[in-house]
Structure formats: structure tokens, C-alpha cells
Amino acid sequence: MSLAELGYAIVEQSATAETADRLIELTKSFERSGAVVREI
Amino acid sequence: MAIPAIQELSASAPFRDLVRHVLGPDSFAVRALYFDKIPDANWKVPWHQDLTVAVHKRVSDEPGYGARSVKAGVPHVEPPVSVLEQMLAVRIHLDDCGRMNGPLRVIPGSHKFGRLTADQQSALPKDREVSRTVRRGDVILLRPLLLHASSAAQSSAHRRVIHIEYAVCNLPGEVEWQHGRLHPAQTGVNSN
User: Fold this and answer.
1) Stretch B144-171: mean pLDDT
2) In whole angstroms, what is the distance from residue B152 CA to residue B148 CA?
3) B12 Cβ partners below 8 Å, 6+ apart?
4) Rounded Cα distance, A24 and A14, in Å
5) Cα–Cα distance for residue pair B19/B24, rounded to 1 Å
6) Hey, which residues does B104 pair with through a beta bridge?
7) SS3 letters across chain A
8) What are the structural domain ranges in chain B?
9) Is the pLDDT of residue B15 over 80?
10) How many cross-chain Cβ pairs, A to B, lie less than 8 Å apart?
């Protein structure tokens, strides 16, 4: 079944651990501000 | 999309490749959101479709554009279904998200029914529901019209997600995406 049929798809390990680490560093400033949902 | 690192992520080769396969070469990022679920801020998200888009400024009377609102200072409108049908969200998970972390739940195929009323949503068989657990670094591609929900997390672990929405067309008249637009000569180059 495709994304066209299901409306969603999961791509495993699309991001490397390095990318995830870098993004987590970025999100720490959001956490410090107390935001759990925000436009970025 | 005001943060350079998010602009870079949205235009990065892995993301561009994922989106290109679905929307074609002329897609561009129009909005990015950050979500987390933590013990102090943990919530259940009821079944819904993502029906609104962020726009550059408030518009009053563009035909087909309704449900105007302002969220966190950003104007939003509900565009025609034809616009939503040409959009795709890419959600990258920054933490493992197991059954205790409030994973995404979806009704597969529900995006094909267009905009659903509350009664139509209630009538969809929830026994078709699928709960999608993911690992750190996994990406979920999501059509905005897919009926989806999530439960409150029962774990103290973070459930951090960066959600980026892509579109393929400019909006009509005075309506403009908050970020991004299709340029006439665009050939797969992100405009942000």
C-alpha cells in the first residue's frame, strides 16, 4: 500500500543520529522558553 | 520557517527527495512547527484533519477561503480542499516514540474523503485505526486531510517532533503563504 492509498508513510532512519542531535540542540532553546507547540 | 536551521532542514537533500517523490519537483516549504510532550505539558489530541494553513496577512473575502483565525500571532485560513490535497507534511521524530509516548494514530485512507464533518468523522470505523510507533530519526509523511489523533503520553520521556509542511502552488489573489512561494522558473529549488 502506498502513501497515495494510505495517506501516510513512515521512512525509517531518514535522519542520521548527527542530524537528530543537531536538531535537539536547536530545540533546547524552545524547551527553555517552556514552549511545547510553536511555529519555528 | 524564520529559523535558518529549519530552512536548511526543509531544503536538505533527504527532505527534498522525500517530498519530490510525492509532490513533484516544484514543492516548497510553507510552515514549520515544533511539538513536544512532556509530563508538565501533555495532552490528548482528538481526531482531526489539518485544515488550516498559515498565511502572510489577514484576508477578508477571497472566495473559497474561510475559517480565518490567528494562532500565536500568525494569520491562518482554511483553504479549499484542492489546496490541501496538494500538500504534504514531513514530521521528523527526535526521540523514540513508543506506545507510552502518545504516538500518532491514523485512519488509513481517510484523506480520500475530503473535508469531513464531525458526523462523518464519527462515522468512520475506528477499528481501522493504526497507531504508529517510530524510532528516533524516523520520518512520517502525512497528508493533511488524513484523519489523525494522538493520546497523552504515559511516559516522562520527551516526544519531540519537527513538522514541516510543503505545497506546490501559490495561493490566489491577495492570499499568500506565510513563508515560501512558487517562482515561475522554479525547478525543485526551495524558495525560502
Assistant:
1) 93
2) 14
3) none
4) 16
5) 7
6) B132, B150
7) CCHHHHCEEEECCCCCHHHHHHHHHHHHHHHHCCCCEEEC
8) 4-167
9) yes
10) 115
* Cα angle B51, A28, B191; round to 5: 50
Q: Which CATH number fits domain B4-167: 3.40.190.10, 2.40.50.140, 2.60.40.420, 2.60.120.620?
A: 2.60.120.620
Q: Residue A31 and residue B108: Cβ atoms within 8 Å?
A: no
Q: Which of residues 23-62 of B touch A (CB under 8 A)?
A: 31-38, 41, 54
- Joined together, the cell numbers standing for residue B2 give 524564520
Residue with cell 512532556: B38
* Least confident segment among A18-22, B79-83, B108-112, B158-162: A18-22
Q: Name every chain B residue with its beta carbon within 8 A of the beta carbon of A16.
A: 137
pTM across the whole model: 0.91
Task: Name which residue leads in pLDDT, B142 or A35.
Answer: B142
Environment class of A15 (CB within 10 Å of its CB; exposed 0-12, middle 13-18, buried 19+):
buried
R_g (Cα) of chain B, nearest Å: 17
> Model confidence over B56-99: pLDDT tens digits?
988 778 889 988 899 888 899 999 999 999 999 999 999 999 99
